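Holo prediction. Input below; ligand is adenosine-5'-diphosphate.
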Amino acid sequence: PTPSSQLTSQTSPSARADSDHRRLVHAVNVTKAFHGTEVLKGIDMDVHKGEVVCLLGPSGSGKTTFLRCINQLETIDGGRIWVDDNLMGYVDKGGRLHRLHDKEIAAQRRDIGMVFQRFNLFPHMTALQNVMEGPVQVKGANKGQAKARAKELLDRVGLGDKHGAYPAQLSGGQQQRVAIARALAMDPKLMLFDEPTSALDPELVGEVLDVMKELAKAGMTMIVVTHEMSFARDVADRVVFMDAGVVVEEGPPSQCIDAPQHERTRRFLQRMR
Ligand code: ADP
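Structure of the complex:
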């Protein structure tokens, strides 16, 4: 092994984390199987604070599963994931589950905002109530303050005139922007986006991507699973291309999208054109 890999393997996780204060997500050799089929086959990935990483790759390559592992909606079978120096639950070599306490999981999830393909807003609540709900119910925030902040966030995502609208009265793009505001209301350190525009009519995609662009510009750390190549090219600091449970290639968009090194990446990008 090279001196640097020896150093990595011998240093304790916290010392390693200390060596890089800018690292927010640190995933090492992550594996995950469903019913005996391995869908993540040793994923390594670091995401730094303020970085926007786009996860690209064919359907079924494990992108969503990896996001869900970061947020502990799935428990990984092997490897380790740290988010902001906190170790997520894992299964050790002997098959023993090292699960965090529910309270720890809840605390960590509070720091991670997730936006899904489907918006999952509460149908019986207005946009404003949807955005206030997390801070009030989960964080015990003061209602007045939560309301003021929710209004600010709805304004920020361009829904200043829709505070009182119910989800059914909003377009898909507007609902997705409420979902983004709702995630931001928890003041997350990290935002995970899982194909946030793929359920939208084409004419509504741009307004959601614009909100995400603004968020990126404001310095939010983001991991975005997307098929929107122009978004990845314009906004991503780094693109990670996955296929069949492995990272095939990664780098800045100018390299990974415009001059891919691997045949699998090239084939995928050709299909996207
Ligand atoms: P991607 O996001 O790249 O499309 P996914 O992470 O959704 O890929 O899926 C990777 C593979 O894992 C697929 O073959 C999918 O069918 C399988 N998979 C995902 N979630 C589950 C689950 N809960 N149970 C069984 N198989 C699953």
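Confidence is low (pLDDT under 50) at residues 1-11, 15-19. That is the main takeaway for now.
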